[in-house]
Write a structure and sequence with these properties.
Order of helices and strands: EHEHHEHEHEH
Helix content: 40-55%
CATH class of the domain at 4-36 and 79-147: Alpha Beta
Strand order of the largest sheet: 2-1-3-4-5
Structural class: alpha/beta
CATH topology of the domain at 4-36 and 79-147: Rossmann fold
Mean pLDDT: 94
Shape: elongated
Largest sheet: 5 strands, parallel
CATH architecture of the domain at 4-36 and 79-147: 3-Layer(aba) Sandwich
Number of helices: 6
Low-confidence stretches: none
Number of strands: 5
Distance between the termini: 32 Å
Radius of gyration: 17 Å
C-alpha cells in the first residue's frame, strides 16, 4: 500500500496541523507528514545562527530564507499532496509562495482558509484542486482520495 506524502504549509499560530494528523490517524490513512520549520524564531534566525551575524536585516533575512528554502523546496517536490493553510491573524506570504511553487511543479494542492480571504486568495484558490475551511474537510478529502471512502453519501438517484 502506498504511503501518501503530505506537505503541510502555512500559518504556525494554530493547531491545524495536529488536527489533520489526528484525523488521518483516526481514519487509519497511510500518510506521512512534512512541514516547514514551525518554530518562528529558529526559522527567522537559522541563517545567522549557522553562517554568522549580519548587521543589515535584509541579509539576515536572506540567509534564513535561503536555508529554509532547502527544506521547503525539497519537501514540496517530494510531496504527493500539498496542503496550504492561510490563517486569520497574519499575512502569510510564505504560504502564498509555497502554493505558487507547488502549483508550478504540478502538485495536487488543497488550500484552507476562511471566507474573509476568498477575494485576496482567488488566484491561489484557482490553482488548488480543493478549497476548504476546516481540517475535517481536508481529512474527508484525503479519505476519499486515498481509500475511496465517501462519508455520509446517499445517492438521491438510486
Amino acid at each position: 500500500m502506498k504511503t501518501w506524502k503530505l506537505y503541510l504549509s502555512g500559518e504556525i499560530h494554530t493547531d491545524w496541523r495536529e488536527q489533520i494528523e489526528e484525523g488521518c490517524k483516526a481514519a487509519n490513512l497511510s500518510v506521512s507528514f512534512a512541514a516547514p520549520v514551525t518554530h518562528h524564531e529558529a526559522s527567522d534566525d537559522c541563517g545567522v545562527a549557522i553562517l554568522g551575524a549580519e548587521p543589515n536585516k535584509f541579509w539576515h533575512d536572506q540567509k534564513g530564507a535561503q536555508i529554509n528554502a532547502i527544506r521547503t523546496r525539497t519537501l514540496i517536490s517530494e510531496a504527493d499532496v500539498v496542503i496550504v493553510r492561510f490563517g486569520e491573524k497574519y499575512k502569510q506570504w510564505n504560504a502564498a509562495f509555497d502554493a505558487g511553487y507547488a502549483s508550478a511543479l504540478g502538485k495536487p494542492m488543497i488550500v484552507m482558509h476562511g471566507p474573509d480571504h476568498q477575494h485576496a486568495l482567488k488566484e491561489v484558490d484557482a490553482a488548488a484542486l480543493a478549497v476548504t475551511e476546516t481540517a475535517d474537510e481536508i481529512v474527508s478529502i484525503l479519505k476519499y482520495v486515498i481509500n475511496a471512502e465517501l462519508e455520509n453519501y446517499t445517492n438521491s438517484n438510486s
